[in-house]
Design brief:
The protein has about 400 residues and is mainly alpha-helical. The chain is about 65% helix and about 5% strand. Among the domains are: about 230 residues, no CATH class; about 40 residues, no CATH class. The chain contains 15 helices and eight strands. The chain starts with 6 loop residues before the first helix and ends with a helix. It is a multi-pass membrane protein. Pfam families: BPD_transp_2.
């Protein structure tokens, strides 16, 4: 059933959020903008993994490999040594390169599932890390390579022009990359939601729920599972490009198994198969260690970086915390933060029972379908007017 509310009322929160995000660089310092940049890059990659694991039901532990393909692909294509292509062209080709890597692995993803697919993708991480360390001419080896800045139409997303100011605010690399990250994340958000709402999303959900039933309905199971792997790899490649631009230097040790586990934590905490949930989980997992590092001297049992001692470091402490968050989510909210938010909205929309004169009963709201959930979960907001019915019965009793 379509939403009867006016378009402005339905899109109002989204527009306000977009305006708020666009205004943040004028008020936040570089540290908070870096957190936002890393979170947006992580959200792009988490949305891709959510499509693969949450919607298509395929376990992948190799997401870090495809992020590395996107990051190093951009660095090599746009830098020296390398073809030295325009950075915008290198960005597109790096995303396509990550998709091609996913396409080469897609025959395995189309025929293997469950823990077996997880082990197969795990091999990609170790293989990729070995290649990054040994292919010095392309990757720079252990020390990595510096990242060429992105340039679009003569505008450079770096501090090449320190005199640039907008409304009295100096715009450095973080401020410029902030709007680039917003644009890339907006493209990811709308394309992923459109995919979930369309026929591909319904087909992937059917494959996840029952491959036999999906095949009976005419869904080519192997083809859709392979396509999901390719699309997820392309999102990961785009996230890798944005990460490389944000870090300004890429090193092999960043793209390790721990990064793949972090991405699994993002989609589990946020909610499997949900674009908004993957975004919320990415912000939580990405921002927590950075915040704990900055405020380590004010937190109990957490040692400041480089101080040593018997206390745990902020990175380890953050992993313990979101590990505990995963356990709590799995026990009390298996659908993640997005499911909690959806149930909270349903409670707020539910109208209380009102006792009125005869002939006036409580109204029940229409069923609404959450567009962010591929399986089409619905929530009924109606109530039953039992008190009013009893009152009318007493009036007609002789």
């Amino acid at each position: 059933m379509s939403d009867p509310r006016p378009l402005l009322l339905r899109r109002g929160p989204l527009l306000l959020t977009a305006l708020l995000l666009c205004a943040l660089p004028f008020y936040l310092d570089a540290f908070w903008l870096r957190i936002g940049l890393f979170s947006m890059a992580a959200a792009i990659g988490a949305v891709g993994l959510g499509l693969l694991s949450g919607t298509a039901g395929q376990l992948s532990l190799g997401h870090a490999f495809f992020l590395a393909v996107g990051a190093y692909g951009y660095v090599w294509l746009a830098g020296e040594p390398g073809p030295g292509l325009p950075p915008a062209v290198a960005t597109v080709l790096a995303v396509l390169l990550a998709g091609a890597a996913g396409g080469l692995f897609s025959p395995v993803a189309g025929r293997v599932k469950g823990i077996y697919l997880g082990v197969a993708t795990l091999a990609l991480v170790f293989l990729g890390h070995h290649v990054l360390l040994t292919a010095d001419s392309v990757t720079g080896g252990f020390n990595g390579r510096s990242v060429p800045p992105l340039e679009l139409g003569g505008f450079t997303f770096a501090e090449s022009d320190p005199g640039l100011t907008v409304l009295g605010v100096p715009f450095g690399a973080e401020e410029r990359l902030w709007y680039l990250g917003l644009a890339l994340f907006a493209v990811t958000w709308f394309t992923a939601r459109g995919l979930l709402r369309g026929r591909p999303g319904r087909a992937l959900a059917a494959v996840r729920d029952s491959e036999t039933a999906a095949a009976v309905m005419g869904v080519h199971v192997a083809r859709y599972r392979s396509a999901a792997f390719v699309v997820s790899s392309m999102y990961a490649g785009l996230a890798g490009v944005l990460l490389a631009l944000s870090f300004r230097r890429v090193v092999p040790d960043y793209f390790s198994l721990a990064l793949s586990v972090d991405y699994l934590a993002m989609i589990v905490i946020g909610g499997l198969g949900s674009v908004a949930g993957a975004t919320a989980g990415a912000v939580f997992v990405t921002a927590l260690p950075l915040l704990m590092t900055r405020y380590a001297d004010q937190l109990p049992l957490v040692a400041t970086p480089g101080s040593g001692g018997g206390s745990i470091g902020p990175t380890e402490a953050s992993r313990y915390l979101y590990g505990a968050a995963i356990v709590v989510i799995l026990l009390y909210a298996p659908d993640g933060l997005h499911g909690l938010a959806r149930r909270l909205r349903a409670r707020l929309r539910r109208r209380p029972t009102v006792t009125g004169p005869p002939g006036t009963g409580p109204s029940s709201g229409p069923d609404r379908t959450d567009p962010d959930t591929p399986s089409g979960t619905t929530g009924t907001t109606g109530t039953t007017g039992t008190d009013d019915t009893s009152a009318r019965a007493k009036e007609h009793t002789p």
